[in-house]
Amino acid sequence: MARPQRNTQPELIDAIADVFRSEGYEGASLTKLSAATGLRRASLYHRFEGGKEQMAEEALAVTLKQMDEQVLAKLRGLGTPKEKLDAAGKALLTFYDGGSESCLINLFGTPNDLPDGLTRGVQALVSALITAIAQVLEDAGVSEDEARTRSLRAVALLQGALVLSSAFGDAAPFRAMMTSWAEELLPAPTRPERPLAPEPQQTEAVPQVETPAPKHDVRAAVAAHLKGLKRP
């Protein structure tokens, strides 16, 4: 069943982008694009004289703009590195509809399927996210090389979690990954070293003084002995 006709250009682009995300560039046939927009093929070509490639380019341009305004702006904004990453994480959850949307890498299918302009556009989109995250990490005191490595890993985990969510038809992998996304990016907080406890001072041993044994009372012993002899 065809969807209601989309009249405004933004509505058309949103509908077209949904088809490319779900079907890939090669799978997004004019029949599917027509059904999604509610426009006939002739009307689509009238709106997009460059055909499917122009539709994909405009859909990608809108996606780039959304990523910049919704996610990258949070990373460039004010706040501590932790606050920026937390805000970007929430924005990513919204951007990917909680994990139900396709990852950016699969936005239009594999690079081999795409015209060069689209390939470069997808690469620019992913690179912009990596660079923005790395800059926040550098602001947190992470070295440039380490920040780049952590940022690459974070984006790879993000995209991989989206692929898993898509494969299982369940957003749980993406949501689980995002719960600790910011914490795993940032370096562990430096804990102040505990001062070493002073070693117990050895006290000089008190010389043991032998207590002299009480002197044997010879007279008492003799008296007791004599007393015993006097018994009847």
UniProtKB/TrEMBL annotation:
Keywords assigned:
DNA-binding, Transcription, Transcription regulation
Which GO molecular function terms does the record list? DNA binding
The region called Disordered is annotated at 187-217
- Pfam families according to UniProt: TetR_C_13_2 (PF21993), TetR_N (PF00440)
The record places the DNA-binding region at 29-48
Q: Which residues form the HTH tetR-type domain?
A: 6-66
Q: What is this protein called?
A: TetR/AcrR family transcriptional regulator
Give the lineage.
Bacteria, Pseudomonadati, Pseudomonadota, Alphaproteobacteria, Parvularculales
